[in-house]
Design a protein that fits this description.
Elements lengths: L14 H21 L6 H8 L3 H7 L3 H24 L5 H18 L4
Length: about 110
């Protein structure tokens, strides 16, 4: 069975593929928050997402591959938030201050992640 880790022959996943992957990642985050890493299973994630475990396997090759995507998703969201505030900074000092403030604000406002 081929997993959808990379969209087949396309530069970007379809809207449905992206939505399904996001749904699975959100369910994985919820499971990790509540149960911790050791108790997080593909079956539990699937149950929380109201899908079968085989659907997760279609999009992610393994639990580790899924959790890597969870980490990447959270880091990307933080980086995008920080970048939109830091890039307009007029000096390195302002950029550093803005980066620290925005990063701390992001972490504080996203305790689930």
């Amino acid at each position: 069975m081929r997993t959808k880790n990379e969209p087949g022959g396309r530069d970007t996943p379809t809207f449905i593929e992206a939505a399904r992957r996001a749904q699975i990642i959100e369910a994985a985050i919820d499971t990790l928050v509540e149960l911790g890493y050791a108790s997080t299973t593909m079956a539990e994630i699937a149950s929380r997402a109201n899908i079968s475990k085989s659907v997760i396997s279609y999009y992610f090759a393994s639990k580790d591959a899924l959790l890597e995507q969870v980490v990447e998703s959270v880091y990307r969201a933080g980086a995008e938030t920080v970048a939109e505030h830091v890039l307009p900074a007029s000096s390195a000092t302002t950029a550093l201050r803005t980066w620290i403030r925005t990063d701390v604000e992001f972490i504080g406002s996203h305790p689930r992640e």
